Amino acid sequence: MGCEVQTYSFISQKGGAGKSTLARQFSVLSSETETTLLVDRDPQGTTSKWWARRQEIEPTLERPDLLTSEGLDLSRAIEALRGKPGKLFVDTRPAVEEPEAEAARISDLIVVPVRTSSDDLEAIGDTLKILRRLNKRAVIVVNAARNDTRATSARAALSRFPFPVCPHHLADRTIYQDAALEGRGVGEMKGANARDALAELRRVWDWVREEAANHEH
């Protein structure tokens, strides 16, 4: 694969954890400074629909390119970036089966989002067991936390797993849904809520990038 291209896959067995949100938002931040490619491997096409809205609303927006196909050979996506310093973001199905295992195998880092409910915190264990068997590096990001207390409690509960937990979190903000409906990143939205969301998003993304950079092949 080569160290010029960094690949991030977003994997979780549980639907609604935030895989698509993180993949889209991180890709927008990445595309500010480097070549960025999004791959949508979810049959629901959430990321593909977001990208289509992005083109319709404001085609001049800086945007990551998109490859769509549930059965896409991921080596093709990597080849599309070969020779260009850049990042590849892979949005997957709410499952951990062979397509997700393939995404895991080609990844420099797997991002596992989790919400703070007890159901979500319990469900993440099955995802992490599979990733551990694949012997791939993964990090956990707390997503859609209703307040700092819930986020702190979730991080404490997640500390029992043998994967790094991001010390920052994403709050439960309507701006993420608003941005999704407009095909935008939160930094491309207006208002104080957008600024606050962008600040927290950058903290999480900077931490994730550092985790990947510290363990480059």
Helix and strand content put the structural class at alpha/beta
Going by CATH, what is the homologous superfamily?
P-loop containing nucleotide triphosphate hydrolases
- CATH architecture heading: 3-Layer(aba) Sandwich
Total number of helices: 8
Order of strands side by side in the largest beta sheet? 3-2-4-1-5-6-7
Q: What would you call the shape?
A: globular
Q: What is the fold-level CATH name, i.e. the topology?
A: Rossmann fold
User: What share of the residues does DSSP label as strand, in percent?
Assistant: 15-25%
Q: What can you see in these coordinates?
A:
- The protein has 217 residues and is an alpha/beta fold.
- The chain has a single domain (5-213), classed as Rossmann fold.
- The chain is 46% helix and 22% strand.
- It contains eight helices and seven strands; from the N terminus they run βαβαβαβαβαβαβαα.
- The chain has helices spanning 19-31, 46-57, 74-81, 98-105, 118-133, 148-158, 174-182, 192-213; strands spanning 5-12, 35-40, 65-68, 86-94, 109-114, 138-145, 165-171.
- A seven-stranded parallel beta sheet has the order 3-2-4-1-5-6-7, with helices on both faces.
- Helix 2 (46-57) links the parallel strand 2 (35-40) and strand 3.
- The longest helix has 22 residues, at 192-213.
